[in-house]
Each structure stands twice: as C-alpha cells, then as structure tokens.
Amino acid sequence: MTIQQLEYIVAVDNFRHFAKAAEVCLVTQPTLSMMIQKLEEELDVKLFNRTKHPVEPTRTGEQVIAQARISLKHLQQIKEIVENEKNIVKGKFKLGIIPTIATYLVPELLHRHLAAHNDIELILKERTTENMIKEIMNGTLDGGVLAGPVNHSEFAEYPVYYEKFYAYVSPHDSLHKKRKIDLNKVDIDNIWLLENEHCFRGQIERLCLLKRESSSKLPSIRYESGSIETLINVVDYNPGITIIPEMHAMALNEERQENLREFDGITAVREVCVIVSKEYVRKTMLNIILDIICNSVPKSMQNPELKQYVVPL
Questions:
Q1: H or E element: which one contains 255?
Q2: Which residues contact 273 (CB under 8 A, 6 or more apart)?
Q3: Backbone torsions φ then ψ of 122, nearest 5 degrees
Q4: Burial bucket for residue 95 (CB in 10 Å: 0-12, 13-18, 19+)
Q5: Which of 6, 69, 211, 245 has the most CB within a 10 Å radius?
Q6: Full residue range of the structural domain in which residue 95 is found
Q7: Each residue of 96-151: pLDDT tens digit?
Q8: CATH number of the domain enclosing 194
Q9: Does 226 lie in the same domain as 132?
C-alpha cells in the first residue's frame, strides 16, 4: 500500500470517474486503474463498483476511502508542522464561504489578497454550511467562513464580524409607511425566505419565531429562493418583506435604500466566523487569512459587544 494508491482512490471517490481522477493526479487512466487494482488485490476486496455510472465505492470501499482521507491528512500535517516551525508561509489555503456571505465578501477579499503579494494560493469555494463542515472534516477544505457560533467539538472557531439584520419592505406593502418594523405584527405569509438549505433562513425563522404550521391560511404563492438578490427583486414588485444582512444592505443603490427598515424594539445580528479543524497546524498562514478577511469588512462591524445580539442558528 502506497501513498499514491491512497491518493488515487480518494480522487476517484471525489470525481466518481476514473479518467477525471487520472487527469487531476497527473497520470494516465491505465496507470491509475492498475494501481487501484493492485491495492484491491493486496486488500483482497473490491473498492469500487465499476459497473455503475458514475462509478461508486463499495460498502467496504467507503470505509477504506474514509480512512485514506484521514491518513493523507495526517501525512500532509507532518510537512505543514515542519514548514510552520521554519516560518515558511506558502502553499494553498482552500476556503469555503456560504453563499449569503460570498456575494459581497469575495470581491474585496480577492482584491486585498492579491494586493498582499504573499505566497499563499487562496482557493475560494461557495458551499452550504452542511457541505462545508463535511469538507473541512475530510480535508477537502482547510477552513470556512460561515454564520456562527458553530460550537462544534472538531473545530476551532474565530469570530470575525457581526452584521445587523434589516427588513427590506416592498413599496407596494402597507408596512412601507412604517419607519420601524414590529415583527410580532408581520403576517408570516408576507415574508419571503431563502431555501431551507441556507442557515440564514434558519436564523430568520428564529428571529421572527416563524412556524408555518401555525399559519391560519395557506399562502396563494410560496417562492423560496437561493439568492438574497432574487428575493429583493421579488419584493420590489410584490407586497411583502424579506430580511437581509447589513453588508448586503450597504450595497443597495439609493432607490432601494429607501425600502430598508430597522426592527422595532430589538437589535438582531449574525456572527460571521472562520472555522478550521482543531488539528490544523499552519497557524501563521491562518492568521494571514484572518487578517485579510477582517480588513475586507468595515471596522464598525467588528465590535465584539454586538455578540450579545446574535440570533442563534
């Protein structure tokens, strides 16, 4: 059993395709297939069901591949420990970002990273919170930017900033006349939400104490979007409200700013944090990434006193 063989089975599992895996591993497909076959012979077990399209790992193969990921991660950490001790800061940092943050953070983050002229190759990937956590745990990602607090025993968590929630109210809705919005008096059927896979939606439901089951009537239209910008467009043309984070609110043009409202009697914010595995050893590189992220958002949003107003996930 060799390191290369472990890398090959992980690549095939990632892409579910031998040719694509071989391309990423910089070998020919016959070479990759032969090395995996030799590993299967050594272990006396089939790791992949090659009759499936796309290819799938067998039940035993899933367990072997999961352990291969852990082994490769630990082997990589040996090199990273040495580099960290020598204060060598170079290499890749694969960073996941949830979509409701990526929209406005990524452009400034890329600009500042390029201006820093360091030897870090920053690879950004949009991910849902659930997938991000899985990928950090299996080593596909080094870290992630998401809404917190996560409070996960496997992760180290670094709060970066806090952004307020605002109501975005349709000009065609009677609530538009109000200067502040009392969420206790808002009909749940008039609130446009993101899809269930977004943690942002969960925070809004807790903020509003929304329970669709308790609604006295079914809405004539239900539209759940994966994009805050789409929800804003919907509200521009239809009665109702949506709820958006502060940095998205800051990016609105002057006309749309007129549709923003604060909440009556409450301050509500979300905490944005960076998480990495507790086993992550390249602390110097991590600190550089954290500094770039902090410098990409307004200082006014980095006040730790706002933590008391965080809406739970």
A1: helix 254-257
A2: 145, 146, 147, 148, 149, 150, 157, 158, 159, 160
A3: -90, 120
A4: buried
A5: 245
A6: 87-162+272-309
A7: 999 889 988 999 999 999 998 888 999 999 999 989 999 998 888 999 999 989 88
A8: 3.40.190.10
A9: no
